[in-house]
Specification:
heterodimer, A: 1050 residues, alpha+beta, four-stranded antiparallel β-sheet, disordered C terminus, B: mainly alpha, elongated
Chain lengths: 1050, 357
């Protein structure tokens, strides 16, 4: 009995009228955890009930604490009939389970009903008392911290970065259970919400166990996804990077922490005895490497996986032939060896070692300085699977028998099913790994996985960036070691990562290399694609911009295997074209590298959509890109020729304009200095091509035409014409706007504090008449472009600003519907300072980049101050500490948790000084997909936010149609996220992501349903300057009448 | 290709002041888009009409969702669904409760009932304000009226607390509530020259001096209803005109004091008895509800118009009224000095405000 959960229901407000006669409500609350339920008294006739309940105490296992959500149901008491439910609140108590996060959850939560939406609010206080427990067969992993952030969280220091952790759990989807036919939509939705909550709890716990086994104490870059497979079930899967983190702001804890990573954790002294660990690993974690036996269905999936094209520039054919020899130079091999041996040293069991070697993947996209040594390029793999394959004959029998049983206890059964999915993913990861190897890299960074499901076909995708890492970070080492490492390696700053990791003489693909334009010592490719963020120390010229490639392909409607085959056959063409588009657009922008590349292939009934987004930049280390040259096939036709030259002029103008727009004016470097020949055009154009055998165009396009110094685009038919046109239709953002899909915008570093996170959703209906590939492409292109235009217009008041972390998601909910969901954050910046920075050249930008580094990552700053004797603190740090010891919440924000109306809540706040004037307005909670908040310091991570909501309506028209319905729902989701963060004592969510937004409508029946899954890290931040604190308080003072008015009415 | 669904949701709710105004003014989405196009926003921003349409729809949807909360502004402050900075919340509320001068003049003093609501069509046609906007304004009046009608304490304070309006707007609403409750006639032709501001000024003076709240701050509807006892007592003032000696004495006191100071002295002297009779009779009649309603008509007929026809400058009116009120204190036979001051103090203020072209 290792934990006691305590819950107190304080009050409610703004409840809906449940009794028409009196226009009032007789509300009471049920508090449920696991199988225990408590009830409050009925508070008669009030829309603002004050229950002020006793503390309800649940004595539970910590395993349950991790898996189960606390379920609070508000009901209207009815003497004669059944009590009516008003709504529910699910509270994930995980943040209370580790010491550094929140200590209490207290605040107003929106009461949510899946049919009616938010109906009033309830004030709840939740606490957990954990008891130390030395049970050696533990199943729980309390104490492991989870972060969605894909970099080392701001107030932590990475002692070791262990590596990849993954897990998945499968269950039947309640929506497809037989009981769903007889229960209400509400009951069905709630069953689903609860199930997913349970599954993510279990998943997190299992991942936590793996982390403990690796002797880590945290998961960074945690990405959890749901696959709604319909009839065949519900998959919840997660990947992340296990780390051992040290908290920075507590120097006392830091000093001895070097050798004991367990220090941080509240109650898991896993150091004490290594044996139980290996012991417990048996039952609790399915052994990934044992599930590799390929199932019979593999023969099919083999075929489909042949469609995996290699954006990575890794030739499929080349891989088989002597790949061992060309894995990399001796130095690299050494590095790799080091890594492995380092892992070996630490690893207890051979099993763990195997697993590590299995997948040296990292979900991080930004790294501590010195961690990333070289970057090879993007590696990706896709595979088409049939979901009905899960029901192989042996299985069906079990399914039939256990169906009803599963309703009661789903845990008992699903152990069988994940293996299929595990095998699928393992296969893909294996492929990624071999691609990386072919690039001479031992690791994959910026790694992510995704699926697209349509009916019974599922495309699994994985991508990442092949890289060579500094092994020092992967083993037990101290900060000093890292610093030393940096000095001793003496890597050229700002260009090291661009240097090729593969062997020049034995290149895995034909590429053109030159000497690095920065250090002139090492070779670099002429174009670099990656899935990671721009390293903070990278030398960049000018600004970056969002580059998208968009593509549709019609596909015949088909069933099962025929369908899967059709998709498999289309995939390589799609990938190839997406790649070409990206390349062309990059050239058009006058840039030479892509960061944050994310290619999404979505499958629908009768089409495939491809959307690639990335941030283009000009890396100073890479050569200047050549232009784009157009060549026609029929040179004798005069008018045609004229047309071509007209187009050519347009393209040249666009390139020149873009160079000006993005301030790309690299310093001239004379040829002798570089000492490398002008690149041959043939190689140049080839470099961009994926070597997929199936794409005939490669050969066709390889025929070079006349002009030797440029990238040649050949216009031989209308298709190609379209392509060129589409290149030119991309309108640059209006002046004052920049956009990127990475964390930081290259070239802008003077952010001001205003941020606006938003989600925009558009669905278009295609008229079935004009369904040709071109029309489809145009529609899709217009959809995306118009969406961006709308965003620019809406956010015009924030100019000058930058849209960061622009994340497009495409789905095909029905035959003729295309849905695009965009989440991004607009951040304002200081124009004047920006103008100054324009003048900076490479040398200066280098300098600037390194100061950036400190601002954004805080890493070197903290490193330095930590290595000093702890006495003379830099003032900034002192400020930071005092703030965090005060729980770090500014008075204005604290108002959320300490509400006027609930004196009890106030009383229970232990050390927090009551705000001088409890401003009864709701405190501001910022949300951002970035890992930082401009102009502010994150002082505390309160825990992961991972929420899943379903909303359904049977009165679609009355709720304002599909737009009204979804608008309200998304606003409600934001509200619930903010409320949870505020209740944890936080004032922001960072690394926020809307992972899923599944929308289905049936206008004829006046119905619609939507599922949304969001996640992020709840944090406490403090503004960097006191000045800003004052300015934010001013508006509050201005509306004095408002505030006082509010207090009276509560 | 048609947009089936098109939404934008910000963590901080975006409020476009211009679109909000168009929405408040009751324009349909297409009218609003047309107006925005005419404002030249497309040229300024380089946006397309489609973008504008989508943007306008988004804002309208947001406002529609906010409207429910705006009906009880404190809810807007406490709700969690829309994150809106306090200054923006104040703006939303203030603008929502703002009203058009033309509209308020039409309904001021009318009963805020279903019957009046039916007349909104006519008002809309007459004033050129959209019916939707008329409805909003009317509903606002009615809502505020219902909430504060039977409430204790200062009318202005109550309105401010329950609707979080600015001081200025709360005072205006107090006047509207006060007029609606007492049903003062404001629509007659001869009253047309008066602005809402004129009436609101008078209402404030009356609330301060003539209501129950002026003597006792602990009664219900203290600021809304006139002090019945006071109205009853006003009969006593009749002696000022009924008693011939008193009237003569009063006149001579005023004339002596003002001789040489008024440009219209002779007119004043000639009209004194008429004017005095008019003012005192208005007071004496206020016991009847019907005469209360006609208060402003009477004041115009009995005082403002006679003076205006003789071309009294405003300053002379002021001098006269000051002297007229003050001289009563020197009338030995008159015992209702306090009553007189309570009546005349307010009336003097009102008359001066009402005396303009």
């Amino acid at each position: 009995m290792p934990g006691k959960l305590k819950v107190k229901i304080v009050a409610g407000r703004h409840l809906p009228v449940m009794d028409r006669a009196s226009d009032l409500t007789d509300a009471f609350v049920e508090v449920k955890f696991g199988n225990t339920t408590f009830k409050t008294d009925v508070y008669l006739k009030s829309l603002n009930p004050q229950w002020n309940s006793e503390w309800f105490k649940f004595e539970v296992d910590d395993e349950d604490l991790q898996d189960e959500p606390l379920q609070i149901t508000v009901l209207d008491h009815d003497t004669y009939s059944a009590n009516d439910a008003i709504g529910k609140v699910y509270i994930d108590i995980d943040p209370l389970l580790y010491s550094e996060a929140a200590t209490v959850i207290s605040g107003w939560f929106p009461i949510y009903d899946t049919i009616h939406g938010i109906r009033g609010e309830i004030n709840v206080i939740v606490k957990v008392d954990l008891f130390n427990d030395l049970n050696r067969f533990r199943q729980s992993s309390c104490g492991v911290k989870f972060f969605c952030t894909t970099s080392i969280p701001k107030c932590y220091r990475a002692v070791i970065i262990h590596g990849f952790v993954e897990e998945l759990v499968v269950n039947e989807d309640p929506e497809y259970q037989w009981i769903d036919r007889i229960r209400t939509p509400r009951a069905s939705n709630e069953a689903r919400q609860r199930l997913i909550s349970l599954m993510s709890g279990e998943l997190q716990r299992k991942i936590g166990l793996k982390v403990l086994e690796m002797r880590g104490n945290a998961v960074v870059g945690y990405l959890q996804c749901f696959d709604l497979e319909g009839e065949s079930g519900l998959v919840v899967r997660a990947i992340g990077t296990a780390c051992t983190l040290d908290k920075l702001s507590s120097p006392a804890a830091f000093l001895p922490a070097c050798n004991s990573p367990s220090k941080e954790m509240k109650e898991i002294p896993f150091n004490e005895d290594p044996n139980p660990n290996t012991h417990s690993s048996g039952p609790s974690t399915p052994l990934k490497n044992q599930t590799y036996s390929f199932s019979p269905s593999k023969s099919y999936s083999r075929q489909s996986s042949s469609s995996d094209t290699d954006l990575s520039l890794t030739p499929k054919t080349g891989m088989g032939s002597g790949s061992a020899g060309k894995e990399g130079g001796p130095f690299k091999a050494l590095l790799r060896q080091q890594t492995q041996s380092a892992l070996e040293q630490r690893g207890g069991s051979p099993h763990r070692f195997c697993k590590r070697r299995e997948f040296p993947f990292f979900t991080l996209t930004a790294f501590p300085p010195g961690f990333l040594v070289h970057v090879g390029g993007v590696v990706s793999a896709r595979s088409v699977k049939l979901l009905d394959r899960i029901h192989n004959p042996a299985f069906v029998g079990i399914m039939g028998n256990t169906r009803s049983y599963k309703l009661l206890d789903w845990n008992s059964f699903n152990a069988d099913e994940p293996e299929t999915r595990d095998a699928w993913w393992a296969e893909i990861r294996q492929e990624i790994k071999s691609h990386a190897k072919a690039l001479g890299c031992h690791a994959v960074v910026g790694y992510s996985e995704s699926t697209s499901i349509c009916e019974e076909v599922c495309i699994l995708s994985a991508s990442g960036t092949a890289a060579v890492l500094n092994p020092r970070f992967l083993q037990d080492g101290t900060v000093e070691g890292c610093l030393e490492q940096r000095l001793e390696e003496n890597l050229p700053v700002g260009c090291g990562f661009c240097h090729i990791p593969y062997d020049e003489l034995n290149m895995p693909f034909p590429a053109h290399l030159t000497y690095c334009y920065n250090c002139r010592k090492q070779k670099v490719p002429d174009v670099l694609f990656t899935t990671i963020d721009l390293p903070t120390d990278a030398a960049v010229v000018g600004k970056g911009c969002l580059i998208q490639a968009r593509l549709c392909r019609l596909k015949k409607k088909a069933q099962a295997e025929a369908n899967a085959t059709a998709i498999s056959n289309l995939l390589p063409f799609m990938e190839y074209e997406v790649h070409t588009q990206l390349m062309n657009k990059l050239k058009l922008k006058g840039m030479n590298a892509l960061f944050g590349l994310r290619i999404q292939i979505t499958v629908g009934e009768n089409m495939l959509m491809g959307l690639a987004s990335a941030t283009g930049v000009y890396l100073a280390a890479l050569p200047t890109p050549g232009g784009i040259q157009i060549a026609g096939k029929t040179p004798n036709d005069g008018s045609y020729e004229q047309h071509i030259s007209h187009m050519q002029k347009k393209i040249n103008d666009t390139i020149a304009k873009n160079k000006e727009l993005y301030e790309i004016n690299p310093p001239e470097i004379s040829e002798e200095v570089i000492g490398s020949p002008i690149p041959e055009p043939r190689q140049r154009s080839r470099l961009l091509r994926s070597q997929s055998e199936s794409s005939d165009e490669v050969i066709e396009l390889d025929l070079s035409h006349g002009k030797k110094d440029a990238f040649v685009l050949e216009i031989d038919d209308t298709d190609a014409m379209e392509d060129v046109h589409s290149l030119l239709t991309d309108v640059p953002p209006p002046s004052g706007f920049y956009s990127c899909n990475t964390e930081i915008m290259p070239g802008i570093n003077n952010w001001t504090s205003e941020i606006q996170m938003f989600t925009s959703v558009r669905v278009i209906r295609l008229s079935s008449l004009n369904l040709t590939n071109q029309a489809l492409n145009k529609n899709f292109n217009d959809l995306c472009e118009n969406l961006l235009k709308s965003l620019y217009f809406k956010l015009r008041s924030m100019i000058p600003c930058c849209l960061c972390h622009v994340n497009f998601t495409v789905s095909l909910p029905e035959d003729e519907l295309i849905q695009v969901t965009v989440t991004a954050v607009a951040i304002t910046f200081d124009k004047n300072q920006a103008l100054q920075t324009i003048k900076t050249h490479v040398e200066k930008s280098l300098q600037r980049a390194s100061t950036d580094n400190e601002e954004l990552l805080q890493f070197p700053l903290e490193l330095c101050s930590d290595s000093l004797p702890p006495h003379p603190f830099p003032p900034a740090k002192e400020h930071l500490e005092s703030a965090s010891s005060n729980s770090g919440i500014p008075a204005a924000q604290r108002a959320v948790t300490v509400e006027k109306a609930s004196p009890v809540a106030e009383g229970n706040f232990r050390n927090r000084s009551a705000p001088p004037c409890a401003n009864s307005t709701v405190g501001v909670v910022k949300m951002t997909p970035l890992s930082f908040i401009p102009g502010a310091k994150i002082t505390k991570y309160l825990g992961i936010i991972n929420m899943f909501f379903i909303r359904e309506t049977t009165s679609l028209r009355e709720e304002g149609g599909v737009s009204g319905f979804l608008h309200a729902f998304i606003a409600e989701v934001f509200a619930m996220v903010r409320a949870h963060v505020a209740a944890l004592g936080g004032n922001a969510v960072v690394s926020y992501i809307m992972k899923q937004c599944v929308f289905m409508e049936n206008p004829n029946k006046n119905q619609a349903q939507c599922l949304i899954n969001v996640s992020g890290d709840a944090v406490v931040f403090v503004r960097e300057s006191d000045l800003e604190v004052i300015s934010t308080q001013q508006p509050t003072a201005n509306c004095q009448p408002l505030c006082t008015g509010g207090e009276v009415t509560t | 290709m048609t947009n089936e669904l098109d939404i934008f949701v910000g963590n901080t709710t975006l409020i476009d002041e211009d679109v909000y105004r168009l929405w408040l003014d009751g324009y349909s989405v297409s009218d609003a888009v047309a107006r925005r196009v005419r404002s030249g926003i497309l040229e300024q921003t380089g946006a397309t009409a489609a973008v504008l349409q989508s943007d306008t729809m988004d804002h309208y949807r947001t406002f529609h969702m906010l409207e429910r909360l705006l009906h009880a502004p404190p809810k807007l402050l406490h709700q969690l669904i829309f994150q809106i900075p306090p200054s923006r919340q104040a703006l939303l509320i203030e603008r929502y409760y703002a009203f058009d001068e033309a509209f308020v003049r039409e309904v001021l003093g009318k009963k805020l009932s279903k019957g009046t609501k039916k007349d909104l069509d006519d008002i809309s046609t007459k004033t050129g304000i959209t019916l939707k906007s008329c409805r909003r304004q009317f509903d606002n009046f009615k809502r505020v009226f219902k909430v504060v009608e039977e409430m204790r304490g200062s009318l202005v304070d109550n309105i401010q607390q329950h609707f979080l309006l600015s001081d200025r707007l709360s005072r205006d609403y107090a006047a509207i509530v006060f007029f609606a409750n007492n049903r003062f006639e404001t629509g007659k032709k001869k009253l047309q020259y008066l602005s809402f501001g004129d009436f609101a000024f008078c209402a404030e003076l009356m609330i301060q001096n003539w209501t129950l709240g002026a003597v006792d701050s602990q009664v219900d509807d203290m600021d809304v209803d006139l002090d019945k006892e006071f109205l009853q007592d006003l009969k006593e003032l009749k002696v000022l005109v009924a008693d011939k000696d008193l009237l003569d004495l009063h006149k001579s006191l005023v004339c002596t004091a003002l001789r040489g100071k008024l440009s219209v002295f002779s007119e004043m002297e000639a009209n004194f008895k008429n004017l005095s009779r008019g003012l005192v009779n208005v007071a004496a009649k206020l016991i009847h509800n019907k005469d209360v309603r006609d208060l402003f008509v009477d004041l115009i007929e009995k005082f403002v118009e006679p003076c205006r026809s003789d071309h009294w400058p405003l300053n002379d009116v002021r001098l006269f009224l000051n002297q007229y009120s003050a001289s009563v204190h020197s009338l030995d036979g008159f015992r209702h000095q306090t009553l007189w001051d309570r009546y005349m103090g307010t009336l003097r203020g009102c008359l001066l405000r009402l005396y303009h072209d």
